C-alpha cells in the first residue's frame, strides 16, 4: 500500500510518528537493501537524467551519448561530454544523504547492501563500502574493443578520445551504456540481497531503468517493506509500502541517525 502523496515543500512535512515508525522498522530489520539513483546526488549539484529542465536527457539523447553506436558515430563529442561530467563530479562533495548512509553502513556491519545506479563515486567518497555499482564508474576507462597485445593504457595517442597507436582501439568511459549488460557479479549480489532483505529504501531514482528497478519488485515479492524516497512520483511507487516525497539529503540524516 502506498501512502497518499505528502506535501513537497522543503519544510520536512513528515509526521514525527511516521519517521519513528520507519526508524523502528530499520532497527528491527535483519537486512536493509538500499538502491540509489541520480536524485541521491542532486543535492550535491550533480544533474539527474530525466528532469524536464535540467536533466541530461533534456539536452542530449541517450542514444547519442550513452550507447556504443553513439560513441562510434561521434567519439569526440561523447568523450568530451564524459570529460565535462568528470570535471563536474571532481568539484562537488557528497551530501548529507550520502554521509548518513555511509555512517549507518559502518555502524551496522553486514546489515546493509548498498546498490547504486550512479557512476559519480559520491557514495564511496562519503565512506560507503562496499558499494555495488550497477552502471560502472565515471572516472574509469576501458578499451572499446577487447584489447590486443599492443593496447596499453600507458601509451595512447590523441586525447579525444585516446587511441592505441598500434591498432586504433579507443579508450571509453567504464560506464554501462544502453544496450550493454550490467556487471554480472554486482547484479547477482544485488538480486540476492533483494531476495533476502526485509526492508528496502529506493532513493532518488525514477525507476524507469531495468534491471536496477527490478530489484524493488523482487524485494516486494519476497515480502520486504519497500520505501520510496523521492520528491516526485516514480514508476516504483506502486510496489512501495510508503512513499516519502522528500529530498534525500534532507530526510536521510533524520531517518538513519
Ligand atoms: P533519473 O534522472 O531518471 O531520476 C532521478 C530521480 O531523482 C527523479 O525521480 C527525481 O524526482 C529524483 N530526485 C531529484 N532530486 C532528488 C532529491 N534531492 N532527493 C531524492 N530524489 C530526487 O535518474 P535514475 O533513476 O538514476 O543510466 O536513472 C537511471 C539510469 O538512467 C541512470 O543510471 C542512467 C540513466 O539514463 C545510464 O546512463 C546507463
From TrEMBL:
Deacetylase sirtuin-type domain residues are 12-257
The listed locations are: Cytoplasm
Q: Which PANTHER family match?
A: NAD-DEPENDENT PROTEIN DEACYLASE (PTHR11085:SF4), NAD-DEPENDENT PROTEIN DEACYLASE SIRTUIN-5, MITOCHONDRIAL-RELATED (PTHR11085)
Give the organism the record lists: Comamonas squillarum
Protein family according to the UniProt entry: Belongs to the sirtuin family. Class III subfamily.
- What residues form the catalytic site here? 135
Q: Which UniProt keywords apply?
A: Cytoplasm, NAD, Transferase
- Look at the named UniProt entry and state the broad enzyme category this protein falls under: transferase
The protein's superkingdom reads: Bacteria
Q: Which Enzyme Commission number(s) are on file for it?
A: 2.3.1.286
Query: Which reaction(s) does the protein catalyse, per the Swiss-Prot or TrEMBL entry?
Result: N(6)-acetyl-L-lysyl-[protein] + NAD(+) + H2O = 2''-O-acetyl-ADP-D-ribose + nicotinamide + L-lysyl-[protein]; N(6)-succinyl-L-lysyl-[protein] + NAD(+) + H2O = 2''-O-succinyl-ADP-D-ribose + nicotinamide + L-lysyl-[protein]
Function, please? NAD-dependent lysine deacetylase and desuccinylase that specifically removes acetyl and succinyl groups on target proteins. Modulates the activities of several proteins which are inactive in their acylated form.
Q: What is known of its domains?
A: 2 residues (Tyr-82 and Arg-85) present in a large hydrophobic pocket are probably involved in substrate specificity. They are important for desuccinylation activity, but dispensable for deacetylation activity.
This chain belongs to which protein, by name? Answer: NAD-dependent protein deacylase
For the ligand (NAD(+)), the binding residues are 117-120, 204-206, 230-232, 248
Where is substrate bound in this sequence? 82, 85
Q: Report if keyword NAD is assigned.
A: yes
Q: Does DNA damage count among this protein's keywords?
A: no
Amino acid at each position: 500500500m502506498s501512502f497518499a502523496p505528502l506535501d513537497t515543500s522543503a519544510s520536512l512535512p513528515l509526521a514525527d510518528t511516521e519517521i519513528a515508525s520507519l526508524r523502528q522498522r530499520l532497527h528491527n530489520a535483519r537486512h536493509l537493501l538500499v538502491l540509489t539513483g541520480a536524485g541521491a546526488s542532486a543535492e550535491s549539484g550533480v544533474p539527474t537524467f530525466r528532469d524536464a529542465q535540467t536533466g541530461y536527457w533534456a539536452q542530449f539523447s541517450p542514444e547519442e551519448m550513452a550507447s556504443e553506436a553513439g560513441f562510434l558515430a561521434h567519439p569526440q563529442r561523447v568523450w568530451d561530454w564524459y570529460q565535462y561530467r568528470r570535471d563536474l563530479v571532481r568539484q562537488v562533495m557528497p551530501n548529507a544523504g550520502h554521509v548518513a548512509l555511509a555512517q549507518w553502513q559502518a555502524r551496522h556491519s553486514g546489515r546493509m547492501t548498498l546498490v547504486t545506479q550512479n557512476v559519480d563515486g559520491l557514495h564511496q567518497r562519503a565512506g560507503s563500502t562496499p558499494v555495488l555499482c550497477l552502471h560502472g564508474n565515471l572516472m574509469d576507462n576501458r578499451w572499446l574493443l577487447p584489447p590486443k597485445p599492443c593496447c596499453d593504457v600507458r601509451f595512447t595517442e590523441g586525447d579525444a578520445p585516446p587511441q592505441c597507436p598500434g591498432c586504433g582501439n579507443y579508450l571509453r568511459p567504464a560506464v554501462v551504456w544502453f544496450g550493454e549488460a550490467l556487471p554480472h557479479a554486482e547484479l547477482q549480489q544485488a538480486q540476492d540481497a533483494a531476495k533476502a532483505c526485509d526492508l528496502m529504501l529506493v532513493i532518488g531514482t525514477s525507476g524507469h531503468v531495468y534491471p536496477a528497478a527490478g530489484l524493488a519488485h523482487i524485494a516486494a515479492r519476497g515480502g520486504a517493506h519497500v520505501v520510496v524516497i523521492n520528491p516526485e512520483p516514480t514508476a516504483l511507487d506502486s510496489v512501495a509500502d510508503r512513499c516519502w516525497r522528500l529530498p534525500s539529503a534532507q530526510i536521510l540524516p533524520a531517518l538513519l541517525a
